[in-house]
Amino acid sequence: MIPKFSHLFHHGNDQVDLRDLQPGFTYTVDLVFITHENQTTKVTNTKPITFTTLPEEDPYDFEIDIRTGKVSSQTAYLFYSGVPEPEVKYVNVYRVVYTNDNERTDSQAFKIPKTG
């Protein structure tokens, strides 16, 4: 494997940002010291560090919260939240599935998200 190098940074800096890393990969990092030409002492880093970048975030990994509103003898109002905006980017059609415990039949209702 060919190592990658950061840009050079001044000895007055004590930090550097590594960019364009791959998600979920393990990296080993070491410092390479460039000394003055006439310096006889070799400066080295004695202990490289290893870290693993976080996995890539899934934009569709969100939780929907559903709750009941007003309930009557034949209707129930439902409220949901948790879909990021704009909804149309994440959800094409909503499907509500519900069962009647006495009849054991499935019913469904659809909702198309607002587009503007």
Q: Helical percent range?
A: under 10%
Counting copies of identical and different chains, the oligomeric state is single chain
Distance between the termini: 49 Å
In DSSP terms (H or I, runs of 4 or more residues), the helix count works out at 1
Low-confidence stretches: none
Shape: rod-shaped
User: Order of helices and strands, N to C?
Assistant: EEEEHEE
Order the strands across the largest sheet as they lie in space: 1-2
Beta-strand portion reads 25-35%
Radius of gyration from the alpha-carbon trace, in angstroms:
28 Å
Could you report the average pLDDT, rounded to the nearest whole number? 82
State the major sheet.
2 strands, antiparallel
Structural class: mainly beta
How many E-type strands?
6
